[in-house]
Amino acid sequence: MTRLALLLASALALSACQTLSPGTAAAPATSPVLATADAVDPHSYARPLEARVTHVDLDLRFDFAAKAVSGTATLDIDRQPTAREIVLDSDGYQVSAVTDAATGAPLAFAYGAEDQALGRPLTVQLGAATRKIRIAYTARDAEALQWLTPEQTAGKRQPFLFSQGQAILNRSWIPTQDSPGIRQTWSAKITVPIGLTAVMSGLKSDEIIAGTGGTQTFKFHMDKPVAPYLIAVAIGDLKFQPLGPRTGVWAEPATLPAAARELDDTEKMVETAERLFGPYRWGRYDMIVLPPSFPFGGMENPTLTFLTPTFIAGDKSLVSLIAHELAHSWSGNLATNATWADFWLNEGTTTYATYRIVEEIYGKRVADQQIALGLDSLAGELKNQAAADTRLAIDLKGRSPDDGMTDIAYEKGAAFLRTIETAVGRERFTAFLRKWFDDHAFQPVTSAQFLAAVRRDLVRGDAALEQKLQLDRWVYETGLPSNNVPANAQAFAEVDAAVAAHASGTLPTAAWARWTTDERLRFLNRLPRQQSRASLDALERVFRLNEIGNNEVKFAWASLAVANRYDPAVPAIEAFLQANGRRKFVRPLYLALDKDTSWGRPIARRVYPLARPLYHPLVTGELDKLFGR
């Protein structure tokens, strides 16, 4: 925002309602680091059992012209008496000095050998009494940060920046131990040009400091220990609109009205989630709708969910995305996978919780349909993934943590929890989940801990129930166990009948108009992948699929069109690829186009250079390799 009064009003709105819910224990100042072998993070250089970071204090200036961040990170350290050094993660930032924050004495530091995926270790020698170090540094072209020109934003007036830290990208701009098992509290002072507003995944101070050279500084803090990938920032021409007593949305002015309309069920979702899973422990639940470059549907940054604008359909048909990101406030943010090998503990639990929230608010039929769509997606993933990667507890040693971010974690994980729920009863399983979140609040967790809790609190020595649940089979073995609970066969009965009728040339013309997004997706995705030109012409003529505004339906249609070399859809596909950077959409379309060497690959190679400036490094990193850049 550009007006100080609006800035102050927004800050006051954000600072409201920060007390804990009644009966909720305060977050611990320091979260434990697990010492078991399965909690050792192969994607971090840190040695936290010797010396670990407990708090990060950032004082940073963001330079849009140079695309650089500079300033200091002051780290509180908990160390063993014998520890003489602390090892941090780094990937590109340049350190100019390290000092003992208490005495100002310089401390020796050195970078280790670089790994292309992990970056380099940064080792700092500690004085005998050092408990806090200050690192002066600059980060240029940090992979976690995307700098957008005004032309790449909705309003076309101001530049924009946002960060994406998951899984291990925050080490490109924050000197710390970048492992989900090493939770840290944090605070920050963020200096930006006047005319831009900074927001972060923490509580915003009502103090805005006027600086020199046309700058202003915003202050934030997070007093609950979080996994470092959850430290996030966004800077741009932003305005705030309250949605409820503790919910609201930030967005560019051009986007804000539509976003607020789409999100007006948010407060109800928070209340519903609390009834199911226990008190919401983060104070506020706000959201920010980012420009189309954001690579994910959403990112569950505490107190400030980051959202893609592609969820704005005008009819709330895609707001289950909000339920998903909200559910992370319990599964993922409260109890967090200690390593990325157990990513399913974040996403599978959250996907299960999402379906529960959706059922409470929108009804069982809607939830059953979304579960069915999820199982459809899982079936495809099971076919496409290597067998070893269909385990919930996946082996990621020597690999990118992104390799585990598939629907195995999301939908197989959710299916596992539904299987337990079916066996023990919903009421009992809901109570178990609440206890799980209470017992592991603000702590890292592992698959072994989860299975131990199931056996202790639900199985209780019942040999028949143990055998029925197949717990180890679900987590440590490949494929889908035989006790998986199938989707409700009636969830899409009408749609599935329409798919069958389509084989004889009949289109569901009247039904399509009243079908929900989920029903339209089921229809398009269940059609045989090989279609005649006449069949595709009829689908496009009757349903005007090249012009449809819903991004999920647009993607389903584009996928079918690419599979059949349907030329009339090419302009719409090219426009779609150039209009949004959501990885879920663009990655599979480019892969499918490139696989068709004579028809699709020329299209992909024509579009990608035009669309690439819109995409986040998480997207271009993989696609650049595909296209030999």
Residue windows where pLDDT falls under 50 for at least 5 positions: 1-25
Radius of gyration: 24 Å
Overall geometry comes to globular
Strands of the biggest beta sheet: in what spatial order?
4-7-2-1-10-13-12
| Total number of strands | 21
- Could you tell me the strand content as a percent range? 15-25%
Mean pLDDT: 94
What is the first-to-last residue Cα distance?
38 Å
Secondary structural class: alpha+beta
The percent range for helix content is 25-40%
Q: Characterize the largest beta sheet: strand count, sense, and whether it forms a barrel.
A: 7 strands, mixed
How many individual helices? 20
Mind explaining what this structure looks like?
By secondary structure, this protein is α+β, with helices and mostly antiparallel strands. It is built from 20 helices and 21 strands. The strands form 5 sheets. The chain has a 7-stranded mixed beta sheet with strand order 4-7-2-1-10-13-12. A 5-stranded mixed beta sheet has the order 15-16-17-19-18, with helices on both faces. A hairpin with a 4-residue loop joins strand 12 and strand 13. Helix 5 crosses helix 7 (407-424), helix 17 packs parallel to helix 19 and helix 18 packs parallel to helix 20 (617-626). The protein is globular and about 80 Å long. The two termini are 38 Å apart.
